Amino acid sequence: MRLSLTAATPLALGALLALTGCTGGGDAGAEPTDGATSSAEPTAEESAEPEEDAEASGGPDCLEGTWDSDLAAVAESMSSMPGFEEMNPTIEVTGTSTVTFDGTTMTTEYVDQVSSVTIEINGSPMTTRTSMDGTLTAAYTATDTEITVSDVDLSGVTITNTSVVDGQETEVPGLESAEASGVPLGGTSTYTCTDERLEMTPQVEGVETGGLTQVLTRD
User: Fold this and answer.
1) Which of 10, 66, 123, 150 is most buried, taking the most CB atoms under 10 A from its CB?
2) Which of 113-150 are b and which e, b meaning 16 or more Cβ less than 10 Å from the residue's Cβ?
3) Taking the domains of the chain in order of start, what are their residue ranges?
4) Per-residue confidence (pLDDT) for residue 7, from 0 to 100
């Protein structure tokens, strides 16, 4: 089913800003293992490759700490959401958000973060704005390559979602109504982590999500 803009915008923000993947990520499957099919003894160079890969991904310990969201990357990711790109939207994200991982809990702090999406309908601009301020919490588990987010709690976030058409502003349901509407917030993302940069890509069965990568930098 194709989402309308007013429905897709808060859900897209739930996916990208809350770092919960899309609406319920599927099993991404295991990554192929380099050189694992041969019974011969690996060379020293072959043995070193998995260690280099593990160092590049950083693993669960690398996640821990506080990260700043790259809002330009958030806007770019929103434009790649299924159904958005063909609308040729103008997207702007302002404010700040930080994400903290402590080993079991993910905490996202929003400070006056406003996401604006504008498209043209029959020659007239339509703008949807979502404002977020406050604290989101969620549980998470992580392997060396994947992070799974669950139990997303939006009760500490003030969310306002409005739509402006021909100068008329109307409030529409926001993220706080998503779960009540039967849309789960949470899912699995692949990730790479270094001392300075974290990239997370949601995994959704049957959907190409390469353009939805979320970028964060170490605080």
Assistant:
1) 10
2) bebbbbbeeeeeebbbbbbbbeebbbebebebbbbbbe
3) 5-26+55-213
4) 39
Nearest-angstrom CA–CA distance, 141 and 81:
25
pLDDT in tens, 70-96: 988 888 877 777 666 677 888 888 999
| pLDDT of 44 | 45
Element (H, E) at 107: strand 105-121
What's the CA angle centered on 135, arms 170 and 18, to 5 degrees?
A: 70
Bridge-partner residues for 4, per DSSP? none
SS3 179: helix
Distances (CA, A) of 76 to 164, 189, 201: 22, 17, 13
- Residue 150 CB-half CA count within 13 A: 5
**Residue that is written with structure tokens 């590049």 in the block:** 56
Query: How many CB atoms within 10 Å of residue 8?
Result: 20
Report d(CA 150, CA 179) in Å as an integer. Answer: 12
Element containing residue 21 per DSSP (H, E): none
The sign of the torsion formed by the CA atoms of 66, 113, 152, 13 equals: negative
Of 8-17, 80-89, 107-116, 162-171, where does the model show the most confidence? 107-116
